[in-house]
Structures are given as C-alpha cells and as structure tokens.
Amino acid sequence: MAEIENNSMRLRMTDSRKQRFQDLQEALDEKTKSKALDKAAKYTVRMRGGTTAVPKGAIAELMQLAEEQGSVTVAEIADVLDTPEVTVEYKSRWTVGELSPRLLSECQGNL
Fold first, then answer.
1. What is the pLDDT of residues 41-87, one digit of tens each?
2. What residues contact residue 53 under an 8 Å CB cut-off, 6+ apart?
3. Cβ-Cβ contacts under 8 Å for 96 (sequence gap 6 or more)
4. What share of the chain is helix, strand, coil (3-state, %, to 5)?
5. pTM: predicted TM-score of the whole model, two decimal places
6. Is the pLDDT of residue 95 over 90?
7. Which of 40, 59, 67, 111 lies at a C-alpha separation of 20 to 30 Å from 88?
C-alpha cells in the first residue's frame, strides 16, 4: 500500500516488486526507481490514452490505421509506437547478387 506525504511516496517492497522495479530500471535504462516509474507512467499513458492529456492512445491509433488501410507496414507500426520514453525505429536493408557477411559465414559453416 502506498502512502504519500510531503511530496514523497513510500511503497511496501515485496521481493516480486523489487524484482519488477529492477527489471523496469534495466528495460528503460534508468538508474533510479523514480525515473523508471515516471518513464513507464508516461509511456503507458501515451500507449493507452483515455486521459484528458492523451484522449487517444497510440494503440488505438495503430488499430484504427490497420482498420482503415487493411494492413500496416512495420515502418508504420514503428512510427506510431515511437515515443520519447521508448524509442521504436525500423530499418530495412536488402541486396541483390551478394551475400551478407552473416549469411556467407552461415553457408561456410554448413560446408
């Protein structure tokens, strides 16, 4: 149960909650729990929406885009889901007539 007093908050830290906070800090590359919680809260509001500040979240936007177009590309998905808190970007690369170094080493390993 959380208690808020004098602009601070205390949380009862169970083992599972401690682990979740550690995982959150690691996933969001934050050194403090408070910054990780802030970033996660902002991201959740941007994705979910349903608030005065963000009436329509990115998930609803993505679903609507797919419904309107019939499908969406990976680049379009990345564009909708990209936020300052958790960046999402898509890069595509293709070649014709040459093997990539990774594919070449895989082929040589199978000889």
1. 999 999 999 999 999 999 999 999 999 999 999 999 999 999 999 99
2. 45
3. none
4. 55, 5, 40
5. 0.72
6. no
7. 67
